[in-house]
Specification:
alpha/beta; 7-stranded mixed β-sheet; 7 strands; globular
């Protein structure tokens, strides 16, 4: 089975590739010659994931899955949420986003947050969604240099390290994306057993 993962983020592709079973060939947007910016204009994380998956299916004809992820911070009423990637502006800069978030939380006693990933799968003219949530807290300073996005300032519940301090194999076991991908794989495996 060939599936397009609708992202240009090589870090995400690497993470998901390490989780996908061998019988599924993962294609990137570059593999299918999709170089335009796929619209993400929905007001929700779910909506953006569905919009991206449908875009690839409608314009390129490939079965596809897309994800959207948001960091939801309690003290900010769930922000940055759907705007996580461009929290500090359209330049989508990880450092700027982290700096703005840390600044917003300077006086906050409640630093609880969760990462939420929704994967939308467009397969055989149907859409299925899979949601993974990882609870944790925002640290006061950055720790670690692995990962991407907000990883250096997000410490998962019951862990002593931020995502950026963990090996990828450890992060994948507990992360929001790992959980959503696991649900996706379970679903794809049930399709396999039906055929």
């Amino acid at each position: 089975m060939k599936l397009v993962f609708a992202t240009n983020n090589n870090n995400k592709i690497k993470e998901v590739q390490s989780l996908i079973p061998d019988h599924i060939t993962l294609l990137s947007l570059a593999d299918i010659k999709c170089f335009e910016d796929i619209p993400e204009t929905q007001p929700t994380i779910e909506g953006n994931a569905i919009q991206k998956a449908n875009y690839v299916k409608d314009n390129y004809g490939f079965d596809c899955f897309a994800d959207d992820t948001g960091l939801e911070v309690d003290a900010l009423n769930g922000a940055p949420g759907v705007y996580s990637a461009r929290f500090a502006g359209p330049q989508r800069d990880d450092k700027d986003n982290m700096d703005k978030l840390l600044d917003n939380l300077k006086t906050a006693s409640n630093r609880n947050a969760n990462f939420k990933t929704v994967i939308a799968l467009s397969l055989q003219n149907k859409i299925e969604t899979f949601t993974g949530i990882c609870k944790g807290e925002i640290t006061k300073t950055k720790h670690g240099d692995s990962g991407f996005g907000y990883d250096p300032i997000f410490r998962p519940q019951d862990q002593n390290e931020t995502f950026a301090e963990m090996p990828l194999s450890e992060k994948n076991k507990i992360s929001h994306r790992g959980k959503a991908v696991s649900l996706l794989i379970d679903y794809l495996n049930t399709l396999d057993s039906e055929n």
